[in-house]
Amino acid sequence: MDFNSRIQQFQEKLGEKADVAFLPIATDLQFLIGVPRSFPNFGVTLHPGAWLEGAWLSPKGAPVLALPRMTAEFGGLNRLENVETRVLGDWDDPAQMVRDILAQFKLPAKPRVALSDKAEAETVIQLQKLLPDAIFISATEIMRELRTVKSAEEIEAMRRAGAVTEAAFSDVLSHLRLGMTELDIASEVDYQLRRHGGLGPSFTTSLYNSGPEHPLIWGDPITTWKRPVNAGVSVLFDFGAAYQGWCYDYGRTVSFGAPSDEQIKVYNLVMESQRAGIAALKAGSTCEAVDAAARKVIEDAGYGELFRHRLGHGIGMDVHEPPFLTKGNKTTLVEGMMFTIEPSITQYHQASSRVEDVVVVRPDGGEPLTTGFQQLYVVE
Question: Is the pTM of this model over 0.90?
Answer without folding.
Answer: yes
